[in-house]
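Reminder to self: tokens first, then the designed residues, so the page reads top to bottom the way the pipeline ran.
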């Protein structure tokens, strides 16, 4: 269960409707990485997790780079998840000097340079959180009152660290980090609530009610606040889905409208809900009409309308979006048009997706059952190109048909992926022999509904 907790301090996946930051003029970055395992350290965005630069160390573990053209904000130096990570704050005309030892995760790095206090704060905060995780007991076994007190104190200690830098760092950055700390507590308490089986005390509930759902500044700037708000969608959908999955998306829209009064935040949350539910909602028109009725923000109304029109292009009978020259596990180049003449059932997956891996035995069983029929079962992997060998190895390990295993050209950012609105995997898509859509969100291979669907076709 600790995994749920750790993720709140590392890679928060949901990014709030964040305003585009200006490109930085330059940041002069000097790194002394003692005992580095590799001669190359990756610099990647803390928010998107995308690599932006390789930093090459000399034989003494030193590097000096001028970073230009990067968006202002937080970046991480490291080698994936296997080695120590150090934060860098990139902003105009700053010099950041970092010295650290790869062999000791709990030893704070030495930070220096002009305009580098945000970097110093981030790394002091990281060491504080790492020490808490390393020395703390299994907090998930606490009773609710003790759990709440532990994290209220954790919040106070985190704010005390930030307070030391208040008058030395950018005011908006300070305000954002205050929000990150406070809503980090709400996120953790929400995690606890989702797994706790007993009745929560009134003090626990009251603490959660202190959250301000109308904070436009944090919605635009704080990833943690954005994650908290996004989680509220998930909690609401789970609650309403227990009674009626069909009307659940409409009820979530109603709740957003009732709970949020700020025009921008409400518009953003309604837009998020539309994107979350529209693809697999039966009555898409009703959901869109609800969105249009409640959304008063012009920016999000336009965004939601565009999304709705794009999704409606995926209705049964519509021509499928296409891909060209995707590589198969045998090295062949395959385009969607090459698959015409048969029904095609796409299994959209990746080697890093645990639920996808669980589906593999079922898809192999289905493929065997319908062997010789007029249908092709095609695996479409969204692994990164750099992980091609890993993908091929798993195809071989799992005994998949290599000829019908394809690798998307740009992972989840591929045009085919974007046009199909594939935000999460596994996802299954069924096309007819002419390349038209039968079902853009077909049942999973593990669900009996898939056989019902396939048996209804003239295979």
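Designed residues (459 positions):
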């Amino acid at each position: 269960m600790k995994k749920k907790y750790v993720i709140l301090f590392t890679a928060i996946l949901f990014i709030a409707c964040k305003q585009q930051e200006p490109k930085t003029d330059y940041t002069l970055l000097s790194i002394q990485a003692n005992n580095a395992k590799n001669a190359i350290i990756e610099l990647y965005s803390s928010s998107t997790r995308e690599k932006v630069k390789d930093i090459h160390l000399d034989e003494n573990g030193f590097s000096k780079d001028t970073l230009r053209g990067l968006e202002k904000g937080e970046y991480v130096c490291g080698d994936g998840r296997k080695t120590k990570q150090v934060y860098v704050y990139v902003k105009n005309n700053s010099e950041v000097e970092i010295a650290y030892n790869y062999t000791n995760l709990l030893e704070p790095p030495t930070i220096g340079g002009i305009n580098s206090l945000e970097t110093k704060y981030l790394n002091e905060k990281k060491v504080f959180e790492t020490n808490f995780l390393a020395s703390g007991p299994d907090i998930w076994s606490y009773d609710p009152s003790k759990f709440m007190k532990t994290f209220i104190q954790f919040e106070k200690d985190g704010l005390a660290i930030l307070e030391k830098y208040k008058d030395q760092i950018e005011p908006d950055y300070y305000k954002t980090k205050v929000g990150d700390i406070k809503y980090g507590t709400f996120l953790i308490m929400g995690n606890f609530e989702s797994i706790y089986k007993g009745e929560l005390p009134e003090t626990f509930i009251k603490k959660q009610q202190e959250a301000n759902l109308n904070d436009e500044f944090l919605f635009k700037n704080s990833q943690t606040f954005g994650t908290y708000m996004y989680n509220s969608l998930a909690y609401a959908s789970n609650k309403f889905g227990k009674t009626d999955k069909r009307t659940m998306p409409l009820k979530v829209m109603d709740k957003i409208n009732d709970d949020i009064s700020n025009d921008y935040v409400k518009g953003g949350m309604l837009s998020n809900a539309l994107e979350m539910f529209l693809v697999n909602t039966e009555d898409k028109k009703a959901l869109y009409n609800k969105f249009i009725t409640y959304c008063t923000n012009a920016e999000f109304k336009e965004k939601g309308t565009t999304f709705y029109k794009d999704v409606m292009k995926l209705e049964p009978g519509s021509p499928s979006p296409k891909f060209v020259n995707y590589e198969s596990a045998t090295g062949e180049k395959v385009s969607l048009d090459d698959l015409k003449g048969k029904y095609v059932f796409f299994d959209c997956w990746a080697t890093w997706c645990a639920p996808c891996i669980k589906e593999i035995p079922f898809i192999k069983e289905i493929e065997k059952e319908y062997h010789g029929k007029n249908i092709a079962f095609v695996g479409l992997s969204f692994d990164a190109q750099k992980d091609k060998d890993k993908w091929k190895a798993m195809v071989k390990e799992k005994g998949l048909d290599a000829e019908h295993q394809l690798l998307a050209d740009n992972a989840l950012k591929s045009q085919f992926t974007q046009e199909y609105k594939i935000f999460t995997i596994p996802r299954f898509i069924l096309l007819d022999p002419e390349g038209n859509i039968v079902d853009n969100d077909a049942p999973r291979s593990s669900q009996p509904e898939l056989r019902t669907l396939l048996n209804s076709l003239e295979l």
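The chain is about 40% helix and 15% strand.
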